[in-house]
Recover the amino acids of this structure.
């Protein structure tokens, strides 16, 4: 089955309460869906011309005061409008990778190190803004250190951090504690996560987890409400060494234990489970990359541009509207993501005290998907209307 996402969405940024909406830009992506059990997939590509997944200020630029006729010289108090257009790219993706550094993982660590750049390149070529966080020791036979383009130039073998796209949390991961290490290091990687990004976890191990699937699901959801839904992908053994020898499979010599917990989590979240015993890593990384690509819908976060000289930004004078080409939908303000559930449609700031972007509530984000020729208008200058 093939899913093609073709949508023209423009974000109109207005200092006042109105403005022309006669410009549109297009972002499109053709991707192939894969299932949790499929390990073969081919990623589509996006033209992505001029698009920016997060609506960054680099794309929007600085607002300039409009030309003659845009203001109100009569002193009537009408809003002065200034419009800018920005293409809305694909939803960003936050990817957490945890590598088992136990002594039996030397070949696997080498393979992960070799395949990670190719994996990330597939995602970037699909015009997806990815943040990748790696938890692993960096040196030794089972350590992982990444070269450019994902890792930093000249950093290996001691420091490959390359923010904001790539962060390496250096810590040894044992045979059975990959999930626990992920939870433990939440304060270290939380800053790389974005509210509107899709969430993916990749575990590479030849063993099982001491933490049960149910306990991990509960602990993960408790970290932050924006981390759910997520997909967990695993490269692990489908059977232990004894079963592997009895069945005369490659797990006889490569498996430490069946990755039962990881199989449960991939099934529960719709992720990819790859057979580590086959020692064929590229097809698995290809399948995970495809899952990341097909899960990236249109972005629902819009950066707030700096006001023009002489103007100031008032966070309580912002309104948001959606246009589907026929009618319009007024989207009201809520104070936090937790308030989204009590309204039909809404938006909120990334930081109430120091807002830098506007984020649509999940149900509103779903509403704007798939409309060809639609627009988002963000209007600055009139009193904010709360969501009803």
């Amino acid at each position: 089955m093939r899913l093609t996402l073709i949508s023209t969405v423009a974000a109109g940024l207005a200092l006042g309460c109105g403005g022309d909406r006669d410009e549109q830009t297009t972002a499109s992506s053709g991707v192939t869906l894969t299932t949790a059990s499929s390990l073969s997939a081919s990623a589509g590509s996006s033209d992505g011309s001029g698009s920016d997944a997060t609506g960054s200020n680099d794309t929007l630029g600085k607002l300039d005061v409009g030309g003659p006729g845009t203001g109100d010289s009569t002193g009537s108090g009408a809003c002065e409008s200034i419009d800018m257009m920005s293409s809305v790219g694909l939803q960003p993706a936050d990817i957490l990778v945890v590598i088992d550094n136990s002594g039996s993982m030397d070949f696997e660590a080498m393979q992960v190190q070799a395949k990670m750049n190719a994996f990330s390149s597939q995602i970037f070529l699909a015009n997806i803004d990815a943040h990748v966080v790696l938890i692993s020791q960096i040196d030794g036979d089972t350590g992982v250190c990444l070269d450019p383009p994902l890792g930093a130039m000249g950093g290996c073998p001691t420091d490959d951090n390359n923010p904001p796209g790539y962060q390496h949390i250096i810590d040894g991961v044992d045979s059975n504690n990959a999930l626990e290490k992920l939870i433990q290091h939440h304060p270290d990687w939380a800053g790389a996560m974005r509210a509107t990004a899709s969430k993916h976890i990749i575990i590479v191990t030849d063993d099982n987890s001491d933490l049960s699937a149910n306990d991990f699901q509960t602990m993960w959801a408790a970290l932050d409400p924006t981390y759910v839904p997520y997909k967990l992908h695993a490269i692990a053994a489908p059977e232990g060494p004894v079963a592997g020898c009895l069945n005369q499979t490659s797990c006889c010599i490569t498996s430490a234990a069946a990755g039962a917990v990881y199989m449960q989590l991939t099934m529960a979240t719709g992720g990819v489970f790859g057979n580590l015993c086959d020692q064929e890593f590229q097809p698995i990384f290809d399948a995970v990359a495809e899952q990341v690509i097909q899960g990236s819908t249109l972005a629902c976060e819009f950066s707030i541009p700096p006001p023009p000289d002489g103007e100031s930004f008032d966070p309580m004078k912002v309104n948001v509207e959606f246009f589907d080409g026929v009618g319009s939908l007024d989207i009201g303000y809520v104070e936090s993501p937790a308030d989204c559930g009590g309204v039909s449609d809404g938006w909120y700031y990334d930081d109430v005290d120091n807002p830098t972007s506007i984020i649509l509530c999940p149900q509103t984000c779903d509403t704007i998907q798939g409309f060809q020729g639609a627009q988002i208008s963000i209007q600055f200058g009139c009193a904010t209307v709360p969501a009803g």
Observations:
- Confidence is low (pLDDT under 50) at residues 1-77, 81-88.
- Residues 2-65+78-90+307-380 form one domain.
